[in-house]
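Annual report, structural modelling task.

Input specification for the magnesium ion complex:
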Amino acid sequence: MEGKNNEYKAEFSNIERLNERLKLTLAFSKRLQLSTAVCYLRFHIPLELLHQKDVEIETILMSKMITRLNRSIRDIDTIIRVNRTDFILVIADITEDDCRVICERIIQACSERYTVDFHHVSITSNIGICMYPYGAEEPHTLKETAKVQMMEAEKSGENCFSFFNGELNEAAYRKMLIENDLPYALKKGQLYVQYQPQYHLGQRRIIGVEALIRWHHPDLGEISPAEFINYAEETGIGNSLFYWVFETVCQQIASEQNVPLKYSINLSVNQLLLDSLLLRISNLLSQYAVSASQLTLEITENIEVYTVKDVNERLYSLKEMGFTIALDDFGNGYFSISDFLKLPIDYLKLDRNFVFSLLKNKNHVGVISPIIQMAHNLNVQVIIEGIEDAQQYREWKNLNCDIIQGYFISRPLSSVVLTASIAKIEARVEEKS
Ligand code: C2E
Ligand code: MG
Ligand code: MG
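The model returned the following structure:
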């Protein structure tokens, strides 16, 4: 933890240093009427290295990469690291054409294979460039525009760079705002949780809810987690979000002791494998006098094959503590049935894509039915997500699915609305189905 704090401090002073250098370079460029390039560089580290336990490998890799980066530019240029994967380069007295050559050189140098601790690793990068004075004149605008342009470059593929040409892309600008503001969203109290009911077909009642995180952004309004969860995971913010949701749900359960609902919480493998996980969640459970049996943990399916063993061990510990385990978004990733058989799970959540595939082609019953059958043989209950109308509801009921989640049952609701609506929702489902 201490290491992390120091790292953030280092980044903070880096940003101050960057601002200082940029201010000086721009003053100098203005006086001598020179062009300066502000380049925003992002490295894409392979997913397996983003994994907690490979922090050391990542550090070695980053230092090798920084060496290559330094060799690709002139001594007078500035490189500042702004976070785990991002750097800003300030290249003074340069034309757009020469800057193009430098960007090609950087991308080429950094993408050559690395050998770290007997692993061969390849990384890719993207660069966005904003030129002074043509693209922008203010230091802040230059940096932001270069970052937005990096996101444009990402759209063209790996190892691409892109110059700002005077037209700011709205989608990229939104993405940049989201990335910039996410680290502060929790502290500023902009996040909240909604709960989506899960309806048990056999018992004909709502047996649980899934906690879904929401972000109310002061300028952009409501933002779906689909827009920020991946970035949160890449930057490690996902871990604090998880603990925050976990605590919020515990508070909610503590305040609603008489409502017999099971609460599901989403977590990624990053959080699942945190060394601190078991201790921190047991502390939260005791703090709010909540039993683990009131909670389901939903793990997303994109579990890399090499982590299956670690995941398996961790899931057994959580089950021992009393949690229920669900495997989320099944059918969306690369998870094989044999991997699935090894995991101690209680619920299998089929991805919403199965609903679409069944709509398009009724023959897909031949694929879906055996999955459900197999789950049942293993004593695993099946949840389908994204059911939006009565026809889909009946189809999945006939397929012998156990639990239905989707707008047909209910949209995600605030905690206050949820408790007041359960009976009404159950009556409506009964009537419409
Ligand atoms: P998920 O866990 O698969 O959650 C289901 C998503 O489907 C939710 O989107 C939900 O609002 C949406 N949904 C439910 N029923 C329907 C329907 O009938 N039609 C349509 N079109 N959509 C439906 P949401 O809330 O935007 O969340 C997206 C994803 O973000 C989640 O997918 C989950 O992977 C992630 N997420 C949400 N909250 C958290 C969280 O607290 N922690 C983590 N790690 N991930 C979260
Ligand atoms: Mg989920
Ligand atoms: Mg899901």
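The radius of gyration is 25 Å.
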